[in-house]
Amino acid sequence: MFTHEELHVTAGRRSGVPIVVAIHSTARGQALGGCRIWNYADWRDGVEDALRLSSSMTAKNALAGLANGGGKTVVALPPGARPDRRELLLDVGDAVEALGGRYGTGPDVGTSSDDMVVIGERTSHAFCRPVSAGGSGSSSPGTAAGVLAALRATVDRLPDPGGATASARSWPAGRTFAVVGLGSVGADVARRLASAGARLVVSDVRADAEALADELGARWASPESALTAEVDVLVPAALGGVLTPALVPELRCRAIVGPANNQLASADVAGLLHDRGILWAPDYVVSAGGIVHAVATELYREPEAAVAARIDAIGETLTRVYQLAEAEGLTPAAAAERLVTERLVTERLGTN
Ligand code: PHE
């Protein structure tokens, strides 16, 4: 069944590269979601990614309380393609503008705030341009702040560390975290945790990220061993699909809370984690801080403190998800989906 509202695939007029824009839902307002530029063996894989990621954006924006639906752009670079970057970004701008404002874009994996300036030459629906260019800047600090709020809400539900002193119980000191992926969000989360006294294992596919481990006094590990490290919380902060059925029996964490989009390789993993007693925070709840920062700053024109409070509220939203899951014997994934459905239905009835 086709459960999206729109799916557009165009070959960029300048670059010739396939540009996919999926609009999952506009029930709560303009569909929003970032622009991913990534290599795909087949452009159809990019279409699949866009379909999956755009429906997660509907869930993300709804649970974050934004009056926005979900969409996503995926630029499906063929293997080895090296198109002119500026031409490619102008093509993305045209693809967004062609939708007449039903969809707005922003940065994602493979795109930055500076890229939004170029996309913005062709459309007014580009978020997160640098502050100097009139935008709200990088979405990464907002995303990282939201991850911290989600981590705190999760750690609050874990049993006290055995034999902890009062200071070890204060959050997040006395707890251990494995941050897998040290891109701009992962590195920011690791920094915030380290400076608050947490013990860290960190990893990245790029070996040069090891310098950050030294800087933070963190233990450096390969991505494979970091995923199965014995820690309180695993923090997936790289690409999606890391939580596979095969990985679940190997895990030695008590909870999984991270900003990577679409962490579950398949839907059954939510149940497998639940059966092992590992608390999984739905990724779209955890990672909403970036888009919340962009929308509250650029559309709602809220002052910084109000924006920060909205990002902090991610912790309360996640607590509601956990509480509903416990009360109804659901996985957190199923509980979050139920809340999303409620929000979408209420919005349609116009009672919200
Ligand atoms: N790409 C980010 C996300 O997945 C952030 C973002 C998207 C920010 C769209 C603004 C607009 O949430």
How would you characterize the overall build of this protein?
50% of the residues are buried. By secondary structure, the protein is of the alpha/beta class. The strands form two sheets. Strands 1, 2, 3, 4, 5 and 6 form a six-stranded mixed beta sheet that branches. The model has no long low-confidence stretch (mean pLDDT 95). It has helices at 43-63, 85-97, 113-119, 140-155, 166-169, 184-195, 210-216, 223-227, 269-275, 283-286, 289-298, 304-328, 332-349; strands at 6-11, 18-25, 31-32, 35-39, 69-77, 103-104, 176-180, 199-203, 219-220, 231-236, 253-256, 279-280. Helix 1 (43-63) links the parallel strand 4 (35-39) and strand 5 (69-77). Residues 32-34, 106-108, 127-128, 139, 261, 287, 290-291, 294 line the site of phenylalanine.
Helix-strand pattern: EEEEHEHEHHHEHEHEHEEHEHHHH
The N- to C-terminal Cα distance equals: 28 Å
Which compounds are bound in this model?
phenylalanine
Q: Identify the overall geometry.
A: globular
Q: What fraction of the residues are assigned to beta strands by DSSP?
A: 15-25%
pLDDT averaged over residues: 95
Instruction: Note the main sheet.
Output: 6 strands, mixed
Q: Please, how many helices? A: 13
Poorly predicted runs: none
Class based on secondary structure composition and strand pairing: alpha/beta
Radius of gyration: 20 Å
How many strands in all?
A: 12
Helical proportion, percent range: 40-55%
